[in-house]
Amino acid sequence: MNQLTVYKKSVKGEEEISTRNDGLSRDLRSTLICVDGKSSVAKIIDASQGLMNVPQCLEELVEKGHVVVDEKATIETMKSELIVAAHQILGADAEKITGKIRCTHETRESLDAAVHSCKKLVRLVIDEKKAEALMSKCSEILTP
Amino acid sequence: MELDITFVISMASILVMVYCLYLVTSLKHNVPGGIIGKKWNFLIGLVVFFTLGYATLPFFGAIPESVLRLIVSGIFFFGAVYVLITVNLIYRIIKELSE
After folding, report:
1. Identity of the residue in B30, B32, B35 whose CB atom sits nearest the CB atom of A123
2. What is the predicted ipTM?
3. Which residues of A touch B99 (CB under 8 A)?
């Protein structure tokens, strides 16, 4: 499970919060409450303070249909992480590529294409080794 | 120094070369490194050399013939090197973008 994935409650999940019809365990219910369509898996894990196995709970909630992946929010989170990675690796030169990442459409394919395009630009005008480092970090961020 | 067509062309050449020098140096901060950046400093050096070489054009009449031949052959040689680097750079950019 990608730690940057953002989940949102489904209609069934919203109903479960108020009705408790499905009798979810305490961990599942706590995880369901934390899912807000904004927080990534990593944030929910931080918020849980190790009291429950968040990835496993999320997988169960997906299976039961209480939560679904919010693609748009996930892409936004990934974009932010990519921009942070670009600044860490390229320093001030990161501005040459961050615009490309920011303007990318809200799909994973567009984000992949933008990252490859950025890698080419970095290889051409910044540094070949940094391009490889950036690509490696971006692959980690984008791996499902 | 007569104001004939040769002088006018010489002055125009020097002005164009000075403009090239301005362009090549002002673009430097856009290409700090990488495949293009590595070659860019060398290209700047060549443009500086050409600008200095072109600046001697109005004084060609006063320069001894042996020195003149050396200057012209030097400009021809480094002109060829400049073209070689530029074509090679374009080839690498095309290769990089088409991968």
Report:
1. B35
2. 0.75
3. 120
Whole-prediction pTM value? 0.77
Contact pairs from chain A to chain B, CB under 8 Å: 34
In contact, A92 and A126? CB cutoff 8 Å: no
* The pLDDT value given to residue B29: 86
Three-state secondary structure along chain A? CCCCCEEEECHHHHHHHHHCCCCCCHHHHHHHHHCCCCCEHHHHHHHHCCCCCHHHHHHHHHHHCCEEECHHHHHHHHHHHHHHHHHHHHHHHHHHHHHHHHCCCCCHHHHHHHHHHHHHHHHHHCCHHHHHHHHHHHHHHHCC
With the C-alpha atoms ordered B28, B31, B33, B38, is the resulting torsion angle positive or negative? negative
Is A125 an 8 Å CB contact of chain B?
A: yes
Structure tokens at B46: 């060549």
Encoding tokens for residue A10? 């489904």
